[in-house]
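Exercise 7b. Backbone tokens:
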């Protein structure tokens, strides 16, 4: 049995979330006669909502409920009687757990309504636990509402959800709501301490705090991380935890953010490259950076609210949040972080070596980059390519990078990359890219919003510039490289492209 299941709470006093534990204790103290017939447990994943629902099912069906005799705690299940053990083992016929994510239709809810009419077979109460209830269809939710409005006797409903805002207000209003808030680091650490004490695992509190931060507010995820460290045969230390998480000591958020703050371009790029080479999870690294900045920002608020406005921390949190999203889609894993370093570097903050390498042809007197680039462009007809900004690239630059652009497109959507094979760049001014397309079939496909967005993003990533707008033009003739093709060969080429796009087989 995994550690999470082994140390799953079995009574109200064992619930890890203090606020939920206190609220349930208060409600249950009124006895069975005052129990609500419908409950709504809402909150983040992995914090004990379903466990609390099972405990509630045991409390209302345990013969020792509300008894202080025989050494039992008042308003707690005994966990020893036949009914308690059946519910714990999942074999109680009168307690049903339903996953709304896979049973979300009206037919399933209608079947549920038919079963509800039957009296309990063995238990005092029939209990229906519906997990992820927000996944029900509109029709199914309406059918469930009818049942909640006119509940049969001796029947309880416990609705669990991570997204209560998606539930109809009519359902929420008919439930007694218990809000499971995100646990604090100390609450998660307390849970982990109970686990390592029970398993006789050697570990220190600092390491457990590191596990708690990595779990992002989930008791379940925290125990899974702890179990991974333990199964590796190591003591639970900060070093072993970081090793399991793929976060090396060299991947220090403090060091990286200081490089960005100092505008050290070369140092920042080397740092990001080192992360990628050592296999560090970059999204997890960004999470740690944001958490570090958040702590610094809150510390500033405590001292002076005015110090927060326009602060480095506030600005960098916004940028890192964008990087976090870009890391899902990028063709080159470290590229979003590298772009962040580049965008935040400047001549004033460069290290001596990097400044000499990049600015050897700039005037000795420091000037604003954009102002200098504009003046140089007026005196020199050649495109200025020192800065990756819109207006500084020409058609020749796109043509030189066209192979790289297609490589960037392929991981995002291989069908779009197949379409681009029958196009060629026609014009580019740094913001508007015009492509000549040689078949109307390809023109229609590339003109869709989805395909257009992928191409625009790829061009921007490869050239290192801002958003690019794509324009398509149907060509009057085939590209020069294809001039010698016969009509039959052209037709065959179109068929092959279409087959690749639709994943079909040419017969």
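Sequence design result:
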């Amino acid at each position: 049995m995994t550690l999470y299941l082994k140390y799953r709470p079995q009574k109200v006093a064992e619930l890890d979330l203090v606020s939920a534990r206190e609220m349930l204790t208060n409600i249950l103290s009124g006895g069975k006669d005052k129990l609500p017939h419908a409950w709504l447990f809402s909150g983040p994943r992995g914090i004990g909502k379903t466990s609390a629902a099972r405990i509630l099912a045991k409390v209302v069906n345990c013969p020792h409920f509300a008894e202080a005799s025989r050494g039992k705690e008042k308003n707690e299940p005994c966990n020893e009687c036949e009914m308690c053990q059946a519910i714990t083992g999942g074999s109680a016929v009168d307690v049903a757990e339903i996953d709304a994510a896979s049973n979300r239709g009206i037919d399933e809810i209608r079947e549920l309504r038919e079963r509800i009419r039957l009296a309990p077979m063995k238990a005092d109460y029939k209990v229906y636990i519906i997990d992820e209830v927000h996944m029900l269809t509109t029709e199914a939710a309406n059918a469930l509402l009818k049942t909640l409005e006119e509940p049969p006797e001796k029947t309880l409903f416990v609705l669990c959800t991570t997204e209560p805002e998606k539930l109809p207000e009519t359902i929420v209003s008919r439930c007694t709501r218990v809000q499971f808030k995100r646990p604090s680091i100390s609450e998660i650490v307390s849970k982990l301490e109970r686990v390592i004490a029970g398993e006789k695992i050697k570990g220190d509190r600092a390491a457990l705090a590191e596990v708690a931060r990595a779990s992002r507010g989930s008791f379940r995820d925290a125990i899974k991380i702890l179990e991974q460290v333990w199964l590796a045969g190591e003591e639970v230390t900060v070093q072993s935890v970081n090793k399991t998480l793929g976060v090396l000591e060299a991947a220090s958020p403090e060091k990286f953010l200081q490089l960005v703050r100092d505008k050290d371009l070369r140092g920042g790029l080397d740092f990001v490259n080192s992360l990628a080479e050592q296999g560090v999870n970059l999204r997890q690294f960004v999470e740690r950076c944001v958490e570090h900045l958040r702590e610094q920002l809150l510390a500033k608020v405590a001292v002076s609210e005015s110090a927060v406005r326009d602060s480095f921390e506030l600005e960098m949190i916004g940028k890192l949040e964008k990087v976090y999203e870009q890391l899902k889609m990028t063709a080159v894993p470290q590229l979003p972080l590298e772009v962040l370093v580049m965008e935040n570097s400047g001549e004033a903050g460069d290290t001596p070596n990097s400044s000499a390498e990049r600015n050897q042809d700039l005037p000795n007197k420091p000037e604003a980059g954009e102002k200098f680039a504009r003046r140089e462009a007026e005196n020199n007809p050649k495109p200025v390519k020192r800065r990756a900004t819109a207006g500084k690239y020409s058609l020749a630059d796109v043509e030189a990078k066209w192979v790289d652009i297609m490589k960037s497109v392929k991981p995002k959507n291989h069908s779009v990359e197949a379409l681009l094979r029958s196009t060629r760049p026609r014009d580019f001014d740094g913001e508007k890219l015009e492509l000549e397309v040689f078949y109307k079939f390809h023109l229609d496909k590339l003109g869709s919003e989805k395909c257009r967005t992928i191409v625009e993003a790829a061009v921007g990533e490869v050239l290192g510039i801002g958003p690019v707008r794509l324009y398509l033009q149907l060509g009057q003739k085939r590209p020069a490289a294809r001039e010698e093709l016969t009509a039959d060969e052209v037709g065959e080429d179109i068929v092959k492209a279409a087959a690749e796009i639709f994943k079909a087989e040419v017969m």
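Instructor comment: Confidence is low (pLDDT under 50) at residues 347-390, 478-490. The longest strand covers residues 155-161.
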